[in-house]
Amino acid sequence: MEVLGIDIGGSGMKAALVDTTSGEWLTERFRIDTPHPAKLPAMLDALAEVSEHFKWQGPVGCGFPGVIREQTILTAANLHKSLIGIKLGEEISKLFGQSAWLINDADAAGLAEVRFGLAKERPGVALFLTIGTGIGTALFTDGKLVPNSELGHMLMKIGKDKYCEAEHYAADSARQRDDLKWSQWAERFDEFLHDIYALMQPDEIIIGGGVAKKGHKFMDEIDPPCPLLLATLQNRAGIIGAALAAAEHHS
Ligand code: BGC
After folding, report:
1. If you write DSSP's letter for every residue of 167-195 in order, what string do you get?
2. Domain with CATH 3.30.420.40 in the chain
3. What is the pLDDT of residues 1-47, one digit of tens each?
4. Confidence of residue 227 (pLDDT cuts 50, 70, 90)
5. Quick one: pLDDT band at residue 117, thresholds 50, 70, 90?
C-alpha cells in the first residue's frame, strides 16, 4: 500500500510517500519547521503545507511526540500543552480529505526498525530509543510493540540530592543546550542506558533518531549494559513507521 507518512518532531515536520510493503520512500522527503508556539491552528497551517506539497489522495499516517491513546494526544512535553486532548488524526483526516492514523513518534520509528531495519525478526525484549529534541522509547517483545513507553521522562539522579528528567539531561537537545563535546554527552547517555537497563532489563537497545548517524562520535565512549545497536533506518524510520501504522489500520 502507498501511504503518506508524516513525522512531527520538536523542531521539524517531515513527510514522504512510503511503499508500506517494502518500506521504501517513493518521493523525496519534504520538511518544514514545526511552528512554535505549536498551537493547533499553527500546526494545521503547517500540515496544510504538507498536504499542498504532496496533493496526496490516499491514507495518511502521522507520528507525534507524545502519548497517543484512542487517537487522542495525551501528552506534549516538547510542544504546546493546548494540543493535549486533541484528536489530531481526525484533524489531519479532515484537512487531507483522507483517512488518517496517529501514533507516538518513537513507537512509529520502532515499528519501522522492527519490520525493515536491523531489529527485524529478532526474538526477545528490544528497547528502541529515538534521541532528538526529546528521548522517545519504544518497547518490543518478540517484535510486538508495547505502546506508549515514556522512559525519556524517567528521573535520573545526576548529583547529590539532584534529579533531572532523562530527556533534559541526555537528549541531543541537552548536548546542544549545554554545548557538550560528544564524549561529555556520551557519559550522560551511558548513565541513562544503565538506568533504563536496571529497570527494564532489555535483551538489546537500539539507538535511532538524529544521533544514530553520529554513532562514530560516541559509540566508543560508551560501556553499554547490554548489546547496543545503531538503527539502520536512522531518521527515515519515523516516516516509514507512521505510514506502516496507518496501513495496518486502514480498512
Ligand atoms: C515524548 C515522547 C516522544 C519523545 C521523542 C518525549 O518528550 O514524551 O512521547 O516519543 O519525546 O519525541
Report:
1. HHHHSHHHHHHTT--HHHHHHHHHHHHHH
2. 2-108+237-250, 121-232
3. 999 999 999 999 999 999 999 999 999 999 999 999 999 999 999 99
4. very high
5. confident
Rounded to the nearest angstrom, the distance between the alpha carbon of 66 and the centre of ligand 1 is 5
66 touches ligand 1 (CB under 6 Å): yes
Q: Is 163 helix (H, G, I), strand (E, B) or coil?
A: strand
CA dihedral 161, 67, 33, 181 (to 10 degrees): 30
Question: Is any atom of ligand 1 closer than 6 Å to the C-beta of 20?
Answer: no
| Grid cell in block for residue 167 | 530527556
Q: Tell me which residue has its CA closest to atom 9 in ligand 1.
A: 66
Looking at domain 2-108+237-250, what is its CATH homologous superfamily?
A: ATPase, nucleotide binding domain (3.30.420.40)
User: CA–CA separation, 42 vs 113, rounded Å?
Assistant: 31
Residues comprising the chain, all counted = 251
The answer to whether the beta carbons of residues 106 and 210 sit under 8 Å apart is no
Quote the strand ranges of the chain, DSSP E: 2-8, 12-19, 30-33, 60-64, 68-69, 72-73, 100-104, 125-131, 135-141, 144-146, 155-159, 162-165, 204-208, 228-230
- Does residue 106 line the site of ligand 1, with CB under 6 A? yes
Q: What is the pLDDT of residue 119?
A: 67
Phi/psi zone of residue 190: left (φ > 0), alpha (ψ -120 to 50 degrees), beta?
alpha
Q: Could you tell me if 2 and 240 are in contact, meaning their C-beta atoms sit under 8 angstroms apart?
A: no
What pTM was estimated for this model as a whole? Answer: 0.96
| Dist. CA 120 → ligand 1 center (Å) | 23
